[in-house]
Structures are given as C-alpha cells and as structure tokens.
Design brief:
Layout: H1 3-17, H2 30-36, H3 40-64, H4 73-95, H5 97-103, H6 105-108, H7 114-122, H8 129-159, E1 161-162, E2 165-166, H9 168-173, H10 183-218
Antiparallel strand pairs: 1-2
C-alpha cells in the first residue's frame, strides 16, 4: 500500500480526535457531556461506553449499507445503535453496578446520542468497514478524552480529588468549590475548554499548513 493510501485510510482515526472532536469542535453530545462529567471516572466510563457502541454500530451499518432501504435508514441505524447500547448497559449492570448507578439514566440514553447517529448517517453508511471502524475509534477516543478532561477539572476544582482520591492539601487550603460540580460550573468549564482546545488546534493547523506551503515552495 502506498504511503498516500495508508495516510488516507487512517485519516478518520486522527481527525476524529482533534479536527472533528465531537465535544469541542462539532459540539455534539452536550447533554451527557455536562451531566456525567462531575468526576473523571464518570467521564472516562461514559466515553469508553460510547466508543464501544460507536465502533460496533459503525462497522455493522457499513456492512449493511447496501442492503438497508434509504427510506428506513434512520430507524435501522437507531435499532443497530440500540442493540449495542443495551449490551453495554447489561454488562455494566452485571459487573460494574456502582458505576452503572452513578451514570444512571444517561447510560440508557447513549442510544439517542446524536454523535452515534451522525457518524452512522454521514460516514459509516457511505464508506467501507475498515474506515468506518477507524472513524468510530477516532470519534470515540476524542469523546472519551474530552469527557475525561472535563471530569478531571471539575472533580479537582469542585471536590479536591482526582479519580476519587482526595487530595488533602487542596481540601485544607479550601480550594474545592462546589459550583464546579454543579450545572453552572459544568457550562463554565466546558466553555473555557472549548476556547482553549480550538485555539490550540487552529494554531497547530496553521503551523502545519505553513510548513506544507514552505515545503511546496522549496520544490
């Protein structure tokens, strides 16, 4: 396989994390993003659950893309997503009951997460299986990273802990501010991180574009 073809094949994997980051760039899945990121563990768990459903649903939709009638494609995609979402919910309820209770209703609502339906409709239904799987992995990793980061910041600032481990010196210093684990704090942290993330990505893209232009000029 040529280098250009290999790069094109793996492009969905890299763009899903940064350029098409569902949380900070596409602003999708805002409801679970704000609801479950009161702690880093919750954010990581929801992100991984969504990643699993994304990969499996993208793969199946891609395999069935030539057999699903266009008029019923949306109900068909939702049925596929609901199947894998239910599987995740059942596994978590059986083996991780505490985490299942912590995520609550939002775990069941993975099935209506707009990220999943958007990728099935705009990518998996139009591309072969391997690129669709890589797209699911990329978008899922980007979503997991975003939720974990937001949960990390909100838990640190709001409870003085990291992944459930209390940092005594922060508590003694009076740093934890409950507002950060409340909805208002969620919106505030989300907004700030969106600005920072987009500024960093834009800076990197501009540098890469300038480097590419310079390389083209040298030729």
């Amino acid at each position: 396989m040529k280098k250009a073809d290999l790069k094109k094949t793996f492009e969905p994997l890299t763009t899903g994390v940064f350029k098409n980051n569902a949380t900070f760039r596409l602003v999708l899945g805002t409801c679970p993003t704000l609801a479950v990121t009161t702690s880093a563990v919750n954010g990581l768990s929801m992100g991984l659950a969504t990643l699993f459903v994304l990969v499996c649903s993208n793969a199946l939709v891609s395999m069935l893309r030539n057999f699903i009638p266009r008029k019923v494609r949306i109900p068909a995609y939702i049925l596929v997503i609901a199947t894998f979402s239910t599987l995740v919910e059942m596994i978590m309820r059986k083996f991780l009951p505490d985490l299942y209770e912590s995520l609550g209703l939002f775990l069941s609502l993975v099935v209506v997460n707009c990220i999943l339906l958007a990728r099935a409709e705009s990518f998996a239904s139009l591309n072969p299986v391997i690129p669709s799987v890589l797209d699911g992995i990329g978008i899922g990793l980007g979503f997991t990273f975003s939720l974990t980061l937001l949960g990390f910041i909100r838990e640190l600032m709001g409870a003085g802990s990291i992944f459930g481990y209390e940092l005594g010196f922060l508590v003694e210093a009076g740093l934890p501010m409950t507002v950060f684990i409340l909805p208002a704090g969620g919106f505030m942290v989300y907004g700030f991180m969106m600005v920072i993330f987009n500024a960093v990505v834009k800076t990197v893209e501009n540098k890469l574009a300038a480097r590419k232009a310079a390389a083209g000029g040298d030729e």
